[in-house]
User: Which sequence fits this backbone?
């Protein structure tokens, strides 16, 4: 059989890729097929071929997998934001847990994984407290807010996203009405002209407070009074700001913002801690799961009230303040200066006096504090972005030899790499638990507990992080 563009093939979907594409094989040749689920028997049309694999689109579903469910959102397929919406929720959870396990085995070299059951959600929709809608024109030139179709920059109109808050729709309607009424143009990517680019909406689920930040292609905000008069009729409206972004790239927000109405932040709470969140700061998007995740991190940290704790990649101090309730002293380190300011304000807001925050790169600050001030932690919590911890940081961590390390990760692959490093230098992987922070999508969060086997000896074993890159490269080349 020949595998070339436009040919049709019938195959059984047997696996799923990291980004949620179904994988089936025909005569040993692997095809990646969007919109399919493991177990489907599908007629697919080949779109693109490479030596060992290709991509195809679903033409006809001949036999539906028992893992399938009807997506709730009519736009699930064109949108592409919810890669797993056509999979039953319990199957999504099973897949995510397995993904963590297999990454730890394959990339981390662990055999027995001390995994606890994945923590899912009771209601896996409407969980996001933050949404960013691009504003522009549809094919007919009509002003719309929505989302980008797949990987393109064509906006598909959608005033509701089933992962987000119900009030978003009313807010977008008012923004579009205001633009129509006062002849305010939306930004056009092709020409770089037009004003309004994005609407960022954040809601404090615990407080009901709402923030709207409009991203504009310009410095001046016209008709601000008319916009705020309209938006403030929405219950809970607390902060209306704009951020100027005149760059022609894919970054959504500008570097700063100005207030149009109200405060420049909203407040939310997770557990007993209240947080102040400004437009440019990172804040976890799923508050229900975040509370559970932080509780787990706290439980793994096993604090008694005396410990010195580092919270690295601390954002606005979310985890730090949770830990501070049970620790002697907490040091938070974060690279974004505004987030550090939020973190300090949050400590004050909660009357927490045993938390101190530093702005800078964790991989520079921790080694320096250790060398120069002899600051050593009993427990280190890390919550890095997808690329994981830097090697310098891992090295200092092992030199500092905290009794426990709690690793919170949003990427199981870099987690596996970093755990391999730590476990070759005297740490033992005690517990692993996956959390579904992002139902309907392929993303998964993981919390791990590591404990120091020999607190007084500095074991030097040579594992190189090169192993990780070698495996990853080999996989890439295979594809
Ligand atoms: N722990 C926080 C934030 C986690 S997100 C929470 O749960 O809310 C990761 C954070 O790491 C972001 O705030 C990002 O700005 C920060 N960051 C990225 N690179 C960093 C680095 N090299 N050093 C310190 N912080 C960094």
Assistant:
């Amino acid at each position: 059989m020949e595998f070339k563009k436009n040919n049709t093939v019938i195959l059984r979907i047997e696996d799923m890729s990291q980004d949620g594409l179904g994988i089936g094989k025909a005569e040993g040749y692997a095809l990646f097929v969007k919109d399919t689920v493991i177990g489907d028997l599908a007629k697919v049309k080949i779109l693109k071929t490479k030596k060992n694999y290709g991509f195809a689109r679903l033409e006809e579903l001949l036999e539906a997998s028992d893992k399938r469910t009807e997506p709730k959102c009519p736009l699930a397929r064109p949108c592409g934001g919810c890669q797993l919406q056509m999979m039953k929720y319990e199957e999504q959870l099973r897949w995510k847990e397995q993904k963590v396990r297999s990454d730890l085995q394959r990339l981390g070299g662990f055999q027995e994984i001390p995994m606890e059951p994945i923590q899912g959600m009771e209601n896996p929709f409407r969980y996001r407290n933050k949404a960013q809608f691009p504003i522009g024109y549809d094919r007919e030139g009509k002003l719309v807010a929505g989302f980008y179709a797949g990987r393109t920059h064509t906006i598909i109109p959608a005033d509701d996203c089933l992962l987000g808050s119900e009030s978003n729709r009313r807010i977008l309607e008012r923004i579009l009405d205001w633009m129509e009424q006062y002849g305010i143009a939306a930004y056009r990517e092709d020409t770089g002209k037009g004003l309004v680019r994005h609407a960022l909406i954040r809601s404090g689920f615990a407080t009901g407070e709402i923030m709207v930040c409009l991203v504009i292609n310009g410095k001046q905000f016209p008709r601000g009074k008319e916009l705020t008069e309209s938006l403030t009729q929405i219950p809970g409206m607390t902060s209306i700001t704009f951020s100027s972004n005149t760059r022609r790239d894919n970054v959504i927000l500008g570097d700063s913002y100005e207030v149009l109405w109200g405060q420049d932040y909203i407040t939310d709470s997770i557990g007993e801690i209240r947080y102040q969140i400004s437009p440019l700061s990172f804040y976890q998007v799923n508050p229900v799961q975040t509370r559970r995740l932080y509780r787990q991190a706290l439980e793994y940290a096993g604090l008694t009230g005396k410990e010195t704790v580092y919270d690295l990649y601390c954002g606005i101090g979310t985890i730090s303040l949770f830990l501070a309730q049970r620790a002697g002293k907490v040091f938070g380190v974060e690279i974004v200066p505004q987030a550090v300011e939020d973190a300090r304000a949050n400590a004050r807001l909660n009357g927490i006096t045993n938390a101190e925050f530093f702005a800078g790169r964790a991989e520079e600050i921790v080694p320096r504090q250790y060398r120069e001030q002899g600051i050593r932690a009993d427990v280190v919590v890390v919550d890095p972005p997808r690329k994981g911890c830097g090697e310098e940081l891992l090295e200092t961590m092992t030199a500092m030899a905290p009794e426990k390390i709690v690793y919170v990760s949003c990427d199981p692959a870099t987690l596996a790499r970093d755990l391999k490093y730590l476990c070759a230098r005297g740490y033992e992987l005690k517990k692993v638990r996956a959390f579904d922070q992002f139902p309907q999508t392929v993303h998964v969060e993981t919390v791990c507990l590591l404990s120091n086997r020999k607190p007084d000896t500095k074991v030097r074993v040579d594992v190189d992080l090169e192993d990780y890159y070698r495996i990853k490269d080999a996989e890439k080349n295979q594809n």
